[in-house]
Amino acid sequence: MDFVTASAPGKCILFGEHAVVYGCPAVAVAIEQRISVKLQPSQTNTWLLNGNILNLEKNPHISGLIEKLWPVKEGAPPLSIQIEGNIPPASGLGSSAALSVATAAALRRARGRWIIQANNTEHTSWAEGFSSKISQTDAYSSEDGFFFTENHDNLIHLIDNTAVDLDECAILAHSVEAAAQNGRASPMDSSTCAHGGVVIISDVIEESVDYIYSRELKVNDDNRQWHIHHINPNSTDDVYLVIGNTGVHAPTGKQVSKVAMMLEKEPSRMKEIEAIGKIARRGIQALLDSDYEMVGKTMIENQIMLTQIGVSSPELDVLIKAATPTSIGVKLTGAGGGGCMVALTRNPKLTSEAIELAGGRTLISKLGAQGITIDYAPKNPLWSSHKFS
Ligand code: MEV
């Protein structure tokens, strides 16, 4: 039977977690560990997840994406979803963002995309979809948000191979992450898992790096804006990331709320968040200069501030201490409170052994991995609305 498989990498934050939620700059890298999502029409006429009936409430990321990309109301059939991967869940490595962007890519590839071919020209544009460049769509709305451009019936064609768009996958994943985190989610995880490589999120459009797009999100009455960029750091051949997992599950939403409550109670502590932003800016410069000693020092400073805002944990501190002698820089990565730490090192074997001896489980990755890939898809979509055929 026909199926579609898409995969996406996890991510590791080098600088700026938590502060990025408040618009400060941050850097994340895609890691070699991935999540893969396989979709095929369900044989039982019910939605299935890894062979069991899909519980929509317990899987808000998946159900949010189905709502936006798989028009059940228009007759799109239930699917069987198979998820596999080696990104540990709830550990700060972007497992939910990787799942979300891979699911978005698989759903989009499974239904193809309608495009408008302007009369007698090569020029095409989308007839439906979500993008930071299409102002008529609202990826963040709970409505399904499809839009079909009417009155173009004879000009509309279905595309399959090029239907997947990284910006669309990232914006939809950000919208479902934000919904799961009470509206407080930066686009860092979703953009890094979608685009791969090394991603810089900033409060300004940076000049010396590749700008991809901007994102805006209303949090309470505050409008947050982030500008997302790609960089290709040089001379990364002999530097590795060793990620140490404490095994303590620490849901991101809870950690983000903890920081939000601290700031509500003591607004003056915004200075600490701003300090993390300044540190991240130095880290970005060090990466652009390929000065990994400075990248490491900056990571250590970032960890001091993360401890100060209360998101480190005794388990993280033990692994960080164990990795320090063999590393260039060490800090927690992700939301903290448990989850993972990351060491930048030229001795991945020694660093990994030290972390394991201290009780952590390790993963080793280079700095940056490929973003979304479509690993298998049939020629035709699994389902398509025949509206314009
Ligand atoms: C979680 O990976 C990173 C946080 O900064 C939350 C976010 O950016 O949405 C803690």
Can you tell me about this structure?
This protein has 389 residues and is of the alpha+beta class. 31% of the residues lie in helices and 26% in strands. The strands form 3 sheets. Strands 1, 2, 3, 4, 5, 9, 10, 11 and 16 form a 9-stranded mixed sheet that branches. The protein has a 4-stranded antiparallel sheet with strand order 13-14-12-15. A 3-stranded antiparallel sheet has the order 7-6-8. The model has no long low-confidence stretch (mean pLDDT 91). The protein binds (R)-mevalonate. (R)-mevalonate binds at residues 13, 17-18, 20-21, 92, 185-186, 188-189, 252, 256, 334-335.
| Elements, N to C (H/E) | EEEEHEHEEEHHEEEEHHHHEEHEE
Termini, distance in Å?
A: 24 Å
Work out the radius of gyration.
21 Å
**Could you report the average pLDDT, rounded to the nearest whole number?**
91
Topology:
Blueprint: E1 4-15, E2 26-41, E3 48-49, E4 52-53, H1 60-69, E5 79-85, H2 95-111, E6 113-117, E7 124-126, E8 156-159, H3 166-180, H4 188-195, E9 198-202, E10 210-219, E11 222-231, E12 240-245, H5 252-265, H6 270-288, H7 292-308, H8 314-323, E13 329-333, E14 340-345, H9 348-357, E15 361-365, E16 373-376
Parallel strand pairs: 3-5
Antiparallel strand pairs: 1-2, 1-16, 2-5, 2-9, 3-4, 6-7, 6-8, 9-11, 10-11, 12-14, 12-15, 13-14
Helix pairs in contact: 1-2, 1-3, 2-3, 2-4, 3-4, 6-7, 8-9
Keywords:
binds (R)-mevalonate, 9 helices, single chain, 26% strand, 389 residues, alpha+beta, globular, four-stranded antiparallel sheet
Brief rundown of the structure:
The chain has 389 residues and is an alpha+beta fold.
